[in-house]
Design a protein that fits this description.
Number of helices of chain B: 8
Shape of chain B: globular
CATH topology of the largest domain in chain A: Thrombin, subunit H
CATH superfamily of the largest domain in chain A: Rod shape-determining protein MreC, domain 2
Radius of gyration of chain A: 46 Å
Oligomer: heterodimer
Number of strands of chain B: 0
Helix content of chain A: 40-55%
CATH architecture of the largest domain in chain A: Beta Barrel
Radius of gyration of chain B: 15 Å
Shape of chain A: elongated
Structural class of chain A: alpha+beta
Number of domains of chain A: 3
Number of domains of chain B: 1
Largest sheet of chain A: 6 strands, antiparallel, barrel
CATH class of the largest domain in chain A: Mainly Beta
Structural class of chain B: mainly alpha
Distance between the termini of chain A: 129 Å
Strand content of chain A: 15-25%
Order of helices and strands of chain B: HHHHHHHH
Chain lengths: 382, 162
């Protein structure tokens, strides 16, 4: 027993010595022998463990880079948000550039300094003054239309009242020149405060919603043809001799950041063709509306003719059936024991033709063919 | 050790080796937990000292293959630690977590000191700092992790330790 224990101990010592010797040998091995031995272990026994370690390190790097990636993504999102603002700014500046190219001469470009005060007193601070040639009562315009008028001029700064100012007035007309009036701010409450009124339109001039209103050139302050807005609806007023219309403005002063100030010589020369695209679009819209009205009137006329023909056919059939029915009743009365045949009525009129357009009114079905059909003999009112 | 106990010990050993090559790189602490030392000690107290020395040498050589410049240093250290742990198994068999943790601490610290001396990479103040500051810290963390793992693996190792 003791010998066995001692043998085991000696074996342990021998194994320990051998292991220690191998370890020492590995330490003192020259590099040309040590490296192949280490590489052999790495490529065989330790290879799966090395692969695990590599994946673990990749996972750790991914975890560490997650925060940086999130920060980078947030930065990109912020930058993307600013891209929309930059795009809008570019579009606005392009339109302003387009206006400048159409005007060609006689204008002064200025920036509208934004602050909260301008929304309260409906004025704009413009970054151009008398040094740049700005004069009082000069029109202030934007690519979409009229903004206001220069009220006070300093050497390097000028103040302009916008159309929303209570003191603003401008002579205006419809694009086709059929109606004239005076444009002023609509002194309503809430959102209506930012609308315009076209006052003093003669009672005979009824304007449709969507009609474009431009400056008329009367009065000498604003040249003819600057878009002011579009008619929304008529306002009910106590005046019986003129109409007043609510107008949606072409330009919102709160969104104006860059404007053009027209010089007096340019006002005298006018601005023909500068806002021609707006007029053209309005004319096109009016032409479309007119064409639609013509189509609807033509359809109504055709429907009226069709109804009149139906009525005539029905009356003729009723008159033809009446003598035959009287003869049958007389024959029945002469033959005893034979009950009289039931009285037959006129055949129903043919069904109305299918509607070919949506502008036609629905066709009423007659309930009593003998009754006069006043609706089919009179064309519908347009 | 019967077959069941051997299998259970092998499973625990495998888990610890896998933790050494997965969890340790993820943690990447300055004073890392050495799961290989825990695994070597766990097996060493269950086999004869000679076998423990051979196992320590093999594990050390495998681990050293990843650091060829110190090839053999870890093998020598782990051989000594495993052989010593197997001789001191009576202490380790005490069913006391504090004693087990202390044993892990001593084993890891001894391993580090032997390895630092054998690899001859650090000298002077750096060697002292590594041996007296970072190695004890790593040994403490390893002891703590060893105790936690012993608690977690107790259902697996209960039969063999009984």
């Amino acid at each position: 027993m003791a010998r066995a224990a001692g043998s085991g101990t000696r074996t342990d010592v021998v194994l320990f010595a051998v292991s220690g010797f191998l370890s020492m040998l590995a330490i003192i091995l020259p590099a040309n022998l040590r490296d192949p031995a280490a590489a052999g272990l790495r490529r065989t026994v330790v290879a799966p463990l090395v692969a695990l370690q590599r994946r673990a390190e990749l996972s750790r790097n991914a975890l560490l880079s997650h925060e940086a990636a999130t920060t980078q993504r947030d930065s990109l999102a912020l930058r993307a948000q600013s891209v929309y603002a930059v795009e809008a700014e570019n579009a606005r500046l392009r339109r302003l550039l387009g206006l400048g190219q159409r005007l060609r001469w006689g204008f002064i470009a200025a920036e509208a300094l934004g602050d909260d005060e301008r929304r309260e007193d409906f004025t704009l601070k413009l970054t151009a003054g008398s040094d740049a040639g700005v004069r009082t009562f000069s029109p202030v315009v934007a690519p979409d239309g009229l903004v206001g008028m220069v009220h006070t001029v300093d050497p390097a700064l000028s103040l302009a009242i916008t159309w929303s100012n209570a003191d603003f007035r401008a002579s205006a007309m419809t694009v086709d020149g059929s109606a004239f009036g005076i444009v002023a701010a609509h002194l309503g409450s809430g959102a209506d405060r930012y609308l315009l009124e076209l006052r003093g339109v003669p009672f005979r001039n009824e304007l449709r919603p969507g009609t474009m209103v431009v400056t008329s050139g009367l009065g000498g302050v604003y040249p003819e043809g600057i878009p002011v807005g579009t008619v929304l609806r008529e306002l009910q007023t106590s005046e019986g001799w003129a109409r007043t219309y609510l107008v949606r403005p072409a330009v919102l002063p709160s969104e104006v950041t860059s404007v053009m100030i027209l010089r007096p010589d340019r006002v005298d020369a006018g601005v023909p063709g500068v806002w021609a695209s707006s007029k053209a679009s309005d004319s096109a819209a009016r032409r479309v509306v007119t064409a639609a009205d013509s189509i609807a009137a033509d359809s109504a006329r055709r429907l009226a003719r069709r109804r009149a023909a139906d009525s005539a056919r029905t009356v003729a059939a009723t008159r033809a059936a009446a003598p035959a029915a009287a003869a049958r009743v007389a024959d029945s009365a002469r033959a005893p024991g034979v009950s009289p045949a039931p009285q037959r009525t006129a055949p129903p009129p043919p069904a109305a033709p299918a509607r070919t357009d949506s502008a036609a009114a629905p066709v009423p079905q007659p309930t009593n063919p003998g009754a006069p059909r006043s609706d089919t003999t009179r064309p519908p009112s347009p | 050790m019967n077959v069941t106990a051997t299998l259970r010990t092998a499973v625990a050993f495998t888990i610890l080796v896998l933790l050494h090559f997965t969890l340790r790189p993820i943690l990447d602490w300055r004073a890392p937990i050495d799961f290989l030392v825990i695994a070597a000690l766990l097996v060493a107290v269950r086999v004869r000292p000679g076998m423990a020395a051979v196992l320590g040498c093999a594990m050390g050589l495998a681990a050293d293959s990843l650091t060829p410049s110190a090839f053999g240093a870890g093998a020598l250290a782990l051989t000594a630690v495993a052989f010593g742990a197997s001789w001191l198994k009576a202490v380790f068999f005490a069913d006391n977590l504090f004693l087990n943790g202390f044993f892990f601490f001593l084993g890891k610290w001894s391993f580090d000191i032997v390895r630092l001396i054998a690899e001859r990479r650090l000298r002077g103040v750096e060697l002292v700092m590594e041996a007296l500051v970072w190695s004890p810290l790593a040994a403490a963390l390893t002891a703590l992790a060893g105790v936690v793992l012993l608690i977690m693996l107790r259902p697996l190792l209960r039969t063999s330790t009984a």
